[in-house]
Amino acid sequence: MSEKGHAVALFSGGLDSALAVLLILRQNIKVTALTFMTHFGCDITDKSSCAQDSSDMSEKFGFTVKMVHLGHQFVEIVKNPKYGHGKNMNPCIDCRILMLRQAKQFMDTVGADFIFTGEVIGQRPMSQRRPQLDTVLRDSELAGKLVRPLSAKLLPPTEPELSGLLDREKLERISGRSRKRQMELARELGLEDYPSPAGGCLLTDVGYSRRLRDLLNYKPDVDFDDLNLLKVGRHFRLDENTKIVSGRNEEENNKIERYRKNGEWMFEAKDTGSPITLLKGELTEASIQAAAAITARYCRLKNNPEVKISYFRDGDEDHNITVAPESEIMLNQRRI
Ligand code: SF4
């Protein structure tokens, strides 16, 4: 049977967006699903992600998934969201609007009929209450074209429902946080493997948000390496121009080396288990002392009264300093 129309989905790969896709496919409508990625985690290559690898699902049910990276526009929104941040640095309402605007452009380009999402009224505190859903609809300029199949019967009919392209009776009336109806629906629609609900991207994480606020406060002009560096290591602030980042394991040490900028100094206790510690800022007597003491505190020789620490950067010979491991009080004062 040939398809009646073409719809574009906002698709994280989670249960709700997967069910929304299946409800639309069931009505014999072709689906192209857009999975958005940002530098803050919703990325299938990242374990902290709220997006999930959906290739098996798309193959099984017959729809196409396209990955779209929101890049720097999303960073600008995180810095200054029109509708504010949620509990942490997550600008969920602005984020949804940006994703929908991108989806609208895609819909216009490919000549699709409407857009849909897996949103459920009342499920998430910030972005899925009815007034917020209305704001998102207005600002994305999708009036009449945005379908929320899981809550459709609780919302005004959209253009595809009014034109008969979509049968409203076959859509759902789910609201609130319970997932009971979603589980039932998953069984009905043959969706066996679905991920447990994810909490959101890294911007909903307290620690990451604290480090991001600090970074934006002292260095508003961030680049992607700066943002990635916030995901790894222990972070300490010395003063407005100086920050220290110390790895917690080999994987983090490698990432710190990867995200550092040319000319930045690194500290290490050689010939023993040691973090790589990155000094972001000027090399002064005070910053050398602090970065070395932090390295000593987290290396295998941390119980020694003094530890020899090397510091180095590309093209320069190593320098050495012997310091006492940093005290807990000082660490707590400087920890971001
Ligand atoms: S948690 Fe909020 S800010 Fe993060 S990706 Fe999801 S909607 Fe966007």
Protein model, in words:
The protein has two domains: 5-202, 3-Layer(aba) Sandwich (Rossmann fold); 232-334, no CATH class. It contains twelve helices and eleven strands. It has helices at residues 15-25, 55-61, 71-79, 92-110, 130-139, 159-163, 180-189, 206-218, 224-229, 250-259, 285-298, 328-334, and strands at residues 5-10, 29-37, 64-69, 114-116, 146-147, 234-239, 242-246, 265-268, 277-280, 307-312, 319-323. The strands form two sheets. The chain has a six-stranded antiparallel sheet, sandwiched between helices. Strands 3-2-1-4-5 form a five-stranded parallel sheet, with helices on both faces. Residues 42, 50, 90-92, 95-96, 127, 200-201, 203-204 line the site of iron/sulfur cluster. Iron/sulfur cluster binds next to helix 4.
In the CATH scheme, the class of the largest domain would be Alpha Beta
CA-atom Rg in angstroms? 25 Å
Q: What compounds sit in this structure? A: iron/sulfur cluster
Number of helices: 12
Strand order of the largest sheet: 6-7-9-8-10-11
Q: Mean of residue pLDDT? A: 91
Uncertain ranges: 42-50
CATH topology of the largest domain: Rossmann fold
Q: What percentage of the residues does DSSP assign to strands (E)?
A: 15-25%
List the domain count as a whole number: 2
Shape: elongated
Oligomer: single chain
CATH superfamily of the largest domain: HUPs
Structural class: alpha/beta
